[in-house]
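User: Could you go from structure to sequence for me? I need the amino acid at each position, not a summary. Structure tokens:
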């Protein structure tokens, strides 16, 4: 089987991001974005999605973490898109329901080439440590747009913001990790259109 990997570099006046991704990995990661909470969530994403993921990023964090978080999301999305190639044989759809103590996250993905994000999540605090929770949706928007993925995130309940965020990232990991897998019965692109 062809190795499904990607190397992405993005350099702007605001950030510099380098990403190496193997979607058929073992869950190994080396993450250093300068945003501690994001690093933690990306480690979780790699571990539970069985992606090998290396990311280094630097950005204008003297302003805030927004540009760094968004651009890492862009690069992860571009990496997934590049690694999938023509998407021949992939499962395409998947979903996951992940509890994290009192929180529950339901995540569904369609690797359709038609990006859309539905994000029904209420955080009961504005910060997790020093991390602005509004940036979680920004990350998912950047990721889904650049990966070409239809992503639905629904959290019906959860009072602790850290638990809620962790359940969401674990949910994405499990759903995405399953959706990118090759179905040995499928020899073509999983679409009646013939392309994704």
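Assistant: Here is the amino acid at each position, in order:
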């Amino acid at each position: 089987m062809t190795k499904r990997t990607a190397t992405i570099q993005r350099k702007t006046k605001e950030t510099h991001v380098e990403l190496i991704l193997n979607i058929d990995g073992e869950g190994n990661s080396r993450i250093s974005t300068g945003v501690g909470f994001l690093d933690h969530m990306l480690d979780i994403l790699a571990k539970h999605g069985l992606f090998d993921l290396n990311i280094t990023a630097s950005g204008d964090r003297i302003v805030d973490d927004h540009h760094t978080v968004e651009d890492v999301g862009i690069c992860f999305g571009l990496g997934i898109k590049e690694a999938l190639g023509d998407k021949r044989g992939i499962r395409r759809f998947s979903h996951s329901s992940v509890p994290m103590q009192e929180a529950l996250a339901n995540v569904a993905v369609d690797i359709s080439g038609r990006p859309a994000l539905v994000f029904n999540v209420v955080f009961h605090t504005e910060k997790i440590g020093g991390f602005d929770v509004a940036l979680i949706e920004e990350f998912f928007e950047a990721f889904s747009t650049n990966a070409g993925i239809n992503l639905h995130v629904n959290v019906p309940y959860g009072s602790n913001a850290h638990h809620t965020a962790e359940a969401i990232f674990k949910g994405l990991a499990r759903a995405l990790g399953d959706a990118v897998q090759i179905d040995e019965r499928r020899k073509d692109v999983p679409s009646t259109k013939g392309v994704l």
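One structural detail worth keeping in mind: Residues 35 and 65 are 7 Å apart (CA to CA).
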